[in-house]
């Protein structure tokens, strides 16, 4: 079964350093995740900077209020350019999330690329078609809005660019 991909792009009117500092601090994840998901970071402070090998643990309630434990590992980090988190334990069969940051005139362009596979083969494929894909799209739309609230709107206006397959 092939993996699914979500790619989003957002322009942020803030310096790459400001955007990097926000996104590379796992304590900020809760602020950009929809409240109805009851997302909570369990991990204790790991130091001032994100690093390869860092383990981050969470709980969330994505479906019907059922609690889910999720553990990710930061596998790659290039300061102020990109980092990658991969699921080590959690709701997906596979989760690989790339976070890219690029300096552009007037701020930063942030690109997320998520490759994921659902568990349970055919049932997972059905679940993706019925609600997982739309739920993930909704999470990124929520995050887009929250980032605009935190950093401001891009001057020329923009809509979230989302590609899903």
List strands and helices in order, with pairings:
Layout: E1 4-12, H1 16-23, E2 40-41, E3 55-63, E4 66-78, E5 82-89, E6 94-104, E7 107-117, H2 121-151, E8 161-164
Antiparallel strand pairs: 1-7, 1-8, 2-3, 3-4, 4-5, 5-6, 6-7
Could you characterize what this model shows?
There is one protein chain. The chain has 165 residues and is of the alpha+beta class. The protein contains two helices and eight strands. Strands 2-3-4-5-6-7-1-8 form an eight-stranded antiparallel sheet, covered by helices on one side. The chain is globular. It starts with a strand and ends with a strand. The mean pLDDT is 87.
Kindly list the characteristics that best describe this protein.
2 helices, single chain, 165 residues, 8-stranded antiparallel β-sheet, 8 strands, alpha+beta
Please report the total strand number as a whole number: 8
Could you name the ranges where pLDDT drops below 50 across 5 or more consecutive residues?
none
Q: Helix tally?
A: 2
Secondary-structure content class: alpha+beta
Secondary-structure element order, N to C: EHEEEEEEHE
Task: Give the distance, in angstroms, between the N- and C-terminal Cα atoms.
Answer: 13 Å
Task: Using the alpha-carbon principal axes, give the shape.
Answer: globular
Strand count, sense and closure of the main sheet?
Answer: 8 strands, antiparallel
Rg calculated over all Cα atoms: 16 Å
Taken as a percent bin, the fraction of beta residues is: 35-45%
- Helical residue percent? 10-25%
- Mean pLDDT over all positions: 87
Q: How are the strands of the largest sheet arranged?
A: 2-3-4-5-6-7-1-8
